[in-house]
Amino acid sequence: MQFGPFTIAPGRRALLRDGKLVPLGSRAADILIFLASHPGELKTNAEIVRHVWPNTFVEEANLRVHISALRKALDDTQKEPKFITNVPGRGYTFIADLASPTSPPPKPAPVPAGLPAGPRIFGREQSIALISSQLVRSRLLTIVGPGGIGKSTVARAVAAGEGLAGEVLWVDLSEVAQSGLVATSIASALGTLSRTEDLAGDIARHLAERDILLVLDSCEQVVDGTAALAEAILRGAPATRMLATSREPLRADGERVHRLPALELPSTAGRARDAMISPAVQLFVERADACLGSYELSDADAPHVVDICARLDGIALAIELAAGRLETISIPGLASSLSDCFRVLTRGRRTALPRHQTLRATLDWSYTILSAQEKTALTELSVLRGWFSGDAGMAVLSGTEAEDDLASLVAKSLVAADTQAMGTRYRLLDTTRIYAAEKLAAGNGTDAAMARLAAYLQRRFERAEQELYSAAVAEWSEDFASQMANLRAALDWAFSPAGDPLLGVRLTVASLPLFFRLSLLDECLVAVTRAIAYLEDRPGLDERSRMKLYAALGWPQMRATDAPEHGIAAWSTTLRIAEEIGDADHQLRATWALWVDAINRAEPRLGMTFAEKFGVLAHASADPMDAIIGKRMRGATLHWLGRHQESRDELRQMLRDYTSLRAGQHSIRFQFDQRVTARIILARAMWLLGNEDGALREVQETVDYASEIRHTLSLSNVLAEAACPLALLSGRDDLAVGYIASLREHTKALSLDVWHAYADCFEAELVLRAGQAEESSRQLRAAMATLEGAGFTLFQTYFQSVAALALSEQAQYAEAVRLVETALEHCRRSGERWCLPELFRVKARVVFAAGGEGALARATEILDLAAATASEDDAVAWTHRIDRDRRALHAAIGD
């Protein structure tokens, strides 16, 4: 069957274009033959699937994948089809005019002499086209890449393509161990005998008049001899061109280099049809189909196949070897077993070169041709995970010519290099790194290399301390987050039996800003606890580090509901050590933290004591920011004490002073971004002073800013302490629902149990407003118990007022009054006053609802006390609520 430039040979299940074979998968070929056998007829999706996959259940997504491949082979488009049209939701029709051939269909064009047959190629179209075009302009090009990436396959496709020499000579140098034998191998392939001692000259003269492409495959172990010979031949044979494959460039005169990338990996691990866009997955599926006799990628398998291809770095040989194991292992099992990739990937094709039959053999081939110095460098670099900087590479290498060693390994394709605006970064492919790590361990070099890595990271984080404190993440001079894998490995080694625990202690201290800037609280707590345990067993060994570790141990108090002692005890220890060694900075930090603890425990009178102490210490500090932080602490404490106008004025002045200096400098040193924490209390004060609209705008702007700087702790703080409560107090339930959901979302991955409990309490108020008083009471009791156990009772009096209203709705008036009295007693004892008028208002409502003799008089008296308290504090918002209740009370009397 012929149509356009194409011929179908059904007996061979082959598609030819102008007599040349078009690569096409067997399923796509079956679809084409079936449709072309019924020209002009609509074949439904179900009919096509039954014909192509008989007795097999296949989703229609698989059909679309093969139709897409078929359109690509035919250069057919879905928008303007020439050959196959689609009726959406129904099926496909072959629309081209068929002509019967007058002669037997031509056979595929023969492969040029000397060119070995190769497998089907995936995802190399761009490289093949680029190399082909460069060979037209240049006479020597080397395809460079790591072992197994597909250099020979691409070279074979280039040599078989159009537009190049009519003659092709393929010379395999993989078995040539001496540079002097390269010329002999080429002469042997040419079938020429040398008449002189100048073998290179004889080859050049033999080729002088021939238009030929000489392909030299696997030059890496004889690269020097190949380079010299290539130059000699090209000088004497002007019509000859050379295409070489090697793991490093020849560095010959006139050479162009094409570094072959790994096969493209999927951008997502979603559905099968999305994964099949990736050449790496296409290769895996094709090899799996060949291995199993029949295989179609399913949605269930797709994430596992994507994981396999990604963990094998898109290396074609490794993917082929992995697919070859499916005779004895499932795809999920294969994915989970790749941690021991050298054991799993051991069964290549019997006809493959020995070095391509197992992954280890491929890497052995690359490793054995290295110099002793290069071998040492490669194994030492294996301690680095992911991308690393040149400085990191230099730091872990023990050789005196570390920079040259790194450059040499890049040239030999054993280390990948990526040049960016911030500098060049490097990486070992995972398979190479695992192989090199085995060699390092076998040579007893792991501990020394890990010690150098740990020491490097300690120095790097110490130098970057101020940057981590002050700069936005987007403005970091390097991607410090990418160091986390190396940091974890270095800390695990340091505290292992063969490690250096004191180095581990100091590395832990140096990495604290990074842990907190990335909000890795749980991980930080584990590291800090481990380091403290080591120092506690060795009193006096390093008091400065012990002080810093206890300071860090105090920080997770905001979420460690099961261990509130981490707060006061840790910071009290920090303050004591800081005073003993004269560390003014940590005296400030500890005083600040003890103030935070007092505020969180709703003890503002004690909090003001710490705030004033901080102010005294701050005035003696060389850092002008400390005095500004002290002003923020005092302004916040004034709010909790009910002095809202003073609080507002103090915080506005603090923000003006703060803005005049470098913004954000203390976002980590004092746990939260200081602009965010100041604006939280400013918004609350504005609301209480009657500026509801301004307060809500302030809240939203602060939420947006905290999101912009990408500091999860600060964002969670503004949601919990301002956004959620002010939305509820303003009657903006729509806003409250969104803010509560956002609070849960931003804290669920951080185990921030306190803020989860806050979210439960805020949600309980919405439940009460929906008329579900019993459910509201249950939710409040559980969440308030969590907060009390953690020592976070900052909002407990307000939550008690909501709980009292819920009890009143259930006619449990006596219990409701007792709850409000408990809150009022706490206020009298602690000095807390911010919601004191609201507590009196709620008590009046409960008393009136309970009824009985004198209920009206008692409720009126309590409301008068609430109004007087609100007036004394200039709390206009509470006054509005009290006046509303007074009107409701009078209306009830009228009834």
From TrEMBL:
UniProt domain OmpR/PhoB-type: residue ranges: 1-96
Coiled coil: none
DNA-binding region: 1-96
Domain of life of the source: Bacteria
SUPFAM superfamilies tied to this protein: C-terminal effector domain of the bipartite response regulators, P-loop containing nucleoside triphosphate hydrolases, TPR-like
Keyword set, alphabetical order: DNA-binding
PROSITE patterns tied to this protein: OMPR_PHOB
Pfam family, one: Trans_reg_C
Key word DNA-binding present: yes
SMART domains, A to Z: AAA, Trans_reg_C
InterPro entries according to UniProt: AAA+_ATPase, NB-ARC, OmpR/PhoB-type_DNA-bd, P-loop_NTPase, Sig_transdc_resp-reg_C-effctor, TPR-like_helical_dom_sf, WH-like_DNA-bd_sf
Record PANTHER family: HTH-TYPE TRANSCRIPTIONAL REGULATOR RV0890C-RELATED, REGULATOR-RELATED
This protein's name: Helix-turn-helix transcriptional regulator
Species: Shinella lacus
